[in-house]
Amino acid sequence: MQVALVTVGDEILAGDTVNTNAAWLGRELAERGVDVERTTVVPDRVEDIAGVVRDYHTGYDAVIVTGGLGPTHDDVTMEGVAAAFDRDVVESEEALRWLEEDGYSRDDLTEGTGDVPEGARVLPNREGVAPGCVVEDCYVLPGVPDEMKRMFEDVDEEFAGEVRHVAVVEADEPESALLDRLRELRERFPVTVGSYPGDSVSVKIQGTDAEAVEEAAAWLDERVE
Question: 39 — phi, psi (to 5°)?
């Protein structure tokens, strides 16, 4: 399964907020064997949201959009997603009914709180107010991290792939000095390899065959300082 992530928010593009949602979703999806092929940040503009969702909808099995939910002037994600699928934004009776059951009065809710693209499957916000939704293969989640994580729990079983096994080998050598050994590692074993320099070089070995990953890690560990 291949997925694209879209984060909505001027504050992320300006550097005022760190995009922790994409990092968290990337880890969660990877643990389920799902390939995250794209992570994109777009501003709070309907046309930008619609354009990237429309493009990714045709290229990937699912799109996850986070941020920009709610009734304020810059919360335009629902409108952008609706435009991507040529749908209207409508008031969801299901969302309003759920909010009432959660203790909110319709009269006290800001206009637009329960709006979703027409025909969408509503996702209750169990940590906040503004609902999320699913439109075809596009999952729309809140930007507030606690709300996003809780809502993802309600749909996480809809994301699945072939689980990968991971091993990490630390090498106290320059990354450039490891190139020949990493190339031989890929030739010998059915694994993928990534190297990440820091105080030492962390070599991340991944594969769907647990035994092959273990053997590859042991082989490399014997050949690095």
Answer: -130, 120
Is the model's pLDDT at 105 over the cut of 80? Answer: no
| 136: amino acid identity, one letter | E
- Nearest alpha carbon to residue 49 among 64, 59, 60: 64
Q: 222: burial class by Cβ within 10 Å (0-12, 13-18, 19+)?
A: exposed
Distance CA 36, CA 26 (A): 6
pLDDT exceeds 80 at position 7: yes
Domains of the chain: 2-158 (3.40.980.10), 165-221 (3.30.310.50)
Look at residue 147 in the predicted model and tell me its pLDDT.
Answer: 96
